[in-house]
Amino acid sequence: MHILLVEDDPLLGDGLRAGLRQLGFQVDWVRDGIAAERELRAQEFVAAVLDLGLPQKDGLEVLATVRKAGILLPVLILTARDAIPDRIRGLDVGADDYVIKPVDIHELAARLRALVRRAHGQAQEHLSAQDILLEPASRTVQKAGKSVVLSSREFDLLQAFMLNVDHVLSREQLEQYLYSWGQEVDSNAVEVHIHNLRRKLGTSLIQTVRGVGYILVRQAANS
């Protein structure tokens, strides 16, 4: 899952980025409010972790601006501002969660997974479609009750499809989901990963919509 981290403290930001990457997130990191607003307008992320005391533009101002622009991605505020009025203000402006520093990295990852699930209408911890069961926390996959070994990219791609089940995703959307800044993307990378998923999970699992993209449907055609 591709997220935006907005944190001006270099040590904390570096630690959060490294920790979240180890837990399966693709993380882009910016250090000021104007850069945060620019990236949230320009790219598709599944969630954002937003500090409040930012250079150039305060985090609450950033949040208010992007919400007015109709940007609906889940936003988790991560801040040292622990007063009750600050928490109320953050949630009222449009935050989906409000967490006080310091935070355990595993708790932060769990909160992000929960926000993303809810944003995609998924109430349960696991994701399921057809005979596939995906567990985001453990990063494991089963087909018809049997474990299937996927590479990290294959898992991330399958998760993108299962979060957006019954919706067509373009190659550009899938690339944004899979890759963060500075990562080299081969022109046929998405197609290669889809080919591998079809080989491991069934050729009909992910369908091609010509000229548009790809789709994973919740129920197989013959079910």
SSE blueprint:
Blueprint: E1 2-6, H1 10-22, E2 26-30, H2 33-42, E3 47-50, H3 59-68, E4 75-79, H4 84-93, E5 97-100, H5 105-119, E6 127-129, E7 132-135, E8 140-143, E9 146-148, H6 152-163, H7 171-178, H8 189-201, E10 206-209, E11 213-216
Parallel strand pairs: 1-2, 1-3, 3-4, 4-5
Antiparallel strand pairs: 6-7, 7-8, 8-9, 10-11
Helix pairs in contact: 2-3, 6-8
Account of the 3D structure:
The chain is elongated, with a radius of gyration of 18 Å. The longest helix is centred in the middle third of the chain and has 15 residues, at 105-119. Strands 2-1-3-4-5 form a 5-stranded parallel β-sheet, sandwiched between helices. It is built from 8 helices and 11 strands. Helix 2 (33-42) runs parallel beside helix 3 (59-68) and helix 6 packs across helix 8 (189-201). The protein has helices spanning 10-22, 33-42, 59-68, 84-93, 105-119, 152-163, 171-178, 189-201, and strands at 2-6, 26-30, 47-50, 75-79, 97-100, 127-129, 132-135, 140-143, 146-148, 206-209, 213-216. The chain is 41% helix and 20% strand. The model has no long low-confidence stretch (mean pLDDT 92). By secondary structure, it is of the alpha/beta class.
For the structure shown, list the relevant keywords.
223 residues; five-stranded parallel beta sheet; four-stranded antiparallel beta sheet; 41% helix
